[in-house]
Amino acid sequence: MRARTRRSAFTLIELLVVIAIIALLISVLLPALGRARSAGQRTVSLSNLRQNMTYMGYYQADNKDEFLNPFGPMRLGATSGWNSYCVVFEPPEIAQLVGHGLYQYAWDYGQGVQSSSGTESYGYHWAGHMFFADDDKISRVKTMAAPQDFALQRWFRENVGGNAQTNYSWIFPSSYWYPPVFWQDWARFVPGNRLGAGAANRFYIRRNRTTDVLTPSAKVQLFENKDFTQKVPPMWHQPGAKPQVAMVDGSGKTVDMSSIIADTGPAGQNPVDRLWYPAGFWNPGPGELNGLEYGQPQGFIWNSNNGSTPWNITPLPAAYFWATRNGVQGRDIR
Asked: For the stretch 17-37, what's the b/e string if a residue is b when 16 or more beta carbons lie within 10 angstroms of its beta carbon?
């Protein structure tokens, strides 16, 4: 007579124990995987910043060590009476075909044109202008977008071909912004509120050099406009944000805005061991950003209120990096 074989199986208790163990492992591993992913994205973004600094270095090497600055007092075709500034480009292939100066492309950044802040909006689009005279591929270099800047990546995907017109008549945004202090006179940023830039003072345009920077390791030249690693990315200047930045000396790092804000001295004072309070706010308004293809119609959401009132200043966004007291001669970190 054949012996009966007993079939083994998991009991309900054993199954529940296994499920509990798996759930526990997931709860432990998922945050670690999230941190690893975030660290990887920060590394990519930091690499982008360093590559962009290299591009800027090429410009400086060709322009007597001057920081990137395309502005001049003459408007295309104007002989007198012009009171604004613009960026002008002449594509090399067009210049070869029709002769220099006949076909050029210009974007105004003066008061009452596209910006109310006197060329400051150039800081949102510097990368697109830097590469405009090159071929189609370099106008959308990958280093312009942070890994988690989904709004910008979507904008690039949707604005191709006819939607983007041509590379010579479209301004490309970037995840990394370039502060106005690098192409403006530091005198504009000396007082408590940065002075208005207009025709009377020639928009404070100035050819600054690296030798004008007193603390290259403490001066931010490029920065992420948001902390993209957070689920709801805060603007770079908000408490709790930890954006990536590139310094004038070529180093890159992650900065903690809460610490920088805590290191900032009261308005009107400059303690030796504290930073100056910024010379102004970042508050361009939707009209300026929308007009520069960088607003809500294009899917970009900006928060111009930091939710706090440091040193009893009105709760506008203190323009850390963007309007540093004393301009290029000031410090952004300790």
From this structure: eeeeeeeeeeeeeeeeeeeee
pLDDT tens figures, 315-333: 567 899 999 999 999 999 9
Separation between Cα atoms, residue 102 and residue 241, nearest integer Å: 47
pLDDT digits (tens, 9 = 90+) for 128-143: 777 664 554 455 678 8
3-state DSSP of 232-297: CCCECCCCCCCCEEEECCCCEEECCHHHHHHCECCCCCCCCCCECCCCCECCCCHHHHHHCCCCHH
Instruction: Give this prediction's pTM.
Output: 0.82
- Measured at the CA of 230, the angle between CA 177 and CA 247, to 5 degrees, comes to 35
| Pairing status of strand 86-89 against strand 105-108 | antiparallel
